[in-house]
Specification:
Elements: E1 5-6, E2 21-22, E3 29-30, E4 34-35, H1 48-66, E5 81-86, E6 96-101, E7 107-109, H2 112-116
Antiparallel strand pairs: 1-4, 2-3, 5-6, 6-7
The chain binds zinc ion (ZN).
Zinc ion binds next to loops.
Length: about 130
């Protein structure tokens, strides 16, 4: 059984839903949701509202911490490569994996290992 974790929403306990009302009879309080998993914000938030609450409180500081975009980024031939494959059904032959340049439409073959390797890229810029 996986460990329970709390929603990271800064105002989760203030959303007054029945499932958040917990505690002994006569001493119940609305509490932060606790689950084995969540579906929002990379598994950190119980709802889109809680994700938005967190971002409203901390988003600016998080962006400053990890690097604020201060000029336009450009999609060029150098960073337009995306991995793709042609489905070849359920036969014993594997699918045809390739890199596709979204600007030039050039295709270059990929091995399945290269396709699955998240560190392997032809892109030379952001
Ligand atoms: Zn929440």
């Amino acid at each position: 059984m996986s460990e329970l974790k709390y929603c990271q929403g800064t105002k989760c306990h203030t959303h007054m839903t029945k499932d958040r009302l917990k505690g002994q009879q006569g001493n119940k309080t609305f509490q932060t949701r606790r689950r084995s998993g969540f579906y929002y914000g990379g598994g950190n938030f119980c709802s889109y509202n809680c994700q938005a609450d967190w971002f409203n409180d901390f988003g600016d500081r998080a962006i400053d911490h990890f690097g604020r975009t201060t000029e336009a980024k450009h999609l060029t031939e150098n960073n337009a490569w995306v991995k793709d494959y042609d489905w070849r059904g359920n036969s014993d032959t594997s699918h045809r994996h390739y890199y596709l340049n979204r600007i030039t439409r050039e295709q270059r073959p990929l091995t399945e290992a290269q396709y699955n390797d998240t560190n392997y890229t032809l892109n030379t810029g952001e």
